[in-house]
């Protein structure tokens, strides 16, 4: 889930729509509501956040420290104009990247993917789960033994989230928040189980085994 913070509703709704078209969950906040949310959000909601896009805000240099006190997601500042002084100030405040609008959401996703790869010290180029599977985080479908396996967006996003947390148990509500967003009340959480069932069936067909371990009440794990 991507979070867009900007005092202009036109910006937050515009970027949310762009992410929606890519099959990626996103939500927009005005700065005041975001400050309240990030301070009080449940841990399960925070783990679903992939990146925070920080747009036009009053005193926006205060937000990076607030975010990093509760969340490990990268912070990307979006500037309307080029200003070296402003860019340096944002980096000093703790943002992870600075871009100038307009910027396509695919570029944002690629930048977040690059940030995550740098954070994965064991596998710096892309996340290679096994010798059989390669998973990317920039919108590309995974590769199975060197061949691209086309997946529906929801299934690809679930696979990415499980691989990103490989070796750890991920519960259904965590997957739901990551794929559909934390404020989506129009979709039942049970839909996640249907997506995972279809994904596992496809992986078994391609690999001859199921790389996703499931335990009741404990959740799913990419082994």
Automatic annotation (TrEMBL):
Matching Pfam families: Trans_reg_C
GO molecular function: phosphorelay response regulator activity; transcription cis-regulatory region binding
UniProt keyword list: DNA-binding, Transcription, Transcription regulation
Domain OmpR/PhoB-type, first and last residues per copy: 125-223
GO cellular component, one term: cytosol
Swiss-Prot/TrEMBL GO biological process terms: regulation of DNA-templated transcription
InterPro entries given in the database record: CheY-like_superfamily, OmpR/PhoB-type_DNA-bd, Sig_transdc_resp-reg_C-effctor, WalR-like, WH-like_DNA-bd_sf
Source organism superkingdom: Bacteria
DNA-binding stretch(es), residue numbering of this chain: 125-223
Protein name: Response regulator transcription factor
Organism, scientific name: Salinarimonas soli
């Amino acid at each position: 889930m991507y979070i867009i913070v900007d005092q202009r509703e036109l910006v937050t709704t515009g970027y949310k729509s762009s992410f929606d078209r890519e099959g990626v969950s996103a939500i927009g906040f005005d700065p005041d509501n975001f400050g309240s949310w990030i301070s009080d959000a449940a841990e399960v909601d925070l783990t679903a956040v992939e990146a925070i896009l920080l747009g036009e805000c009053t005193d926006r240099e205060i937000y990076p420290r607030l975010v990093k006190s509760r969340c490990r997601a990268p912070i990307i500042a979006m500037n309307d104009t080029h200003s070296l002084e402003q860019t340096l100030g944002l980096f000093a405040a703790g943002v992870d990247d600075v871009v100038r609008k307009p910027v396509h959401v695919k570029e944002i996703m690629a930048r977040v993917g690059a940030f995550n790869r740098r954070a994965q010290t064991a596998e710096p180029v892309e996340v290679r789960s096994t010798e059989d599977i390669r998973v990317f985080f920039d919108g590309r479908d995974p590769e199975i033994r060197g061949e691209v396996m086309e997946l529906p967006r929801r299934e690809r996003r679930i696979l990415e989230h499980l691989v990103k947390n490989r070796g750890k148990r991920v519960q259904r509500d965590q997957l739901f928040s990551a794929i559909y967003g934390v404020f989506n009340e129009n979709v039942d959480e049970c839909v996640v189980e249907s997506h995972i069932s279809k994904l596992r069936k496809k992986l078994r067909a391609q690999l001859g085994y199921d790389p996703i371990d499931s335990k009741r009440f404990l959740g799913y794990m990419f082994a």
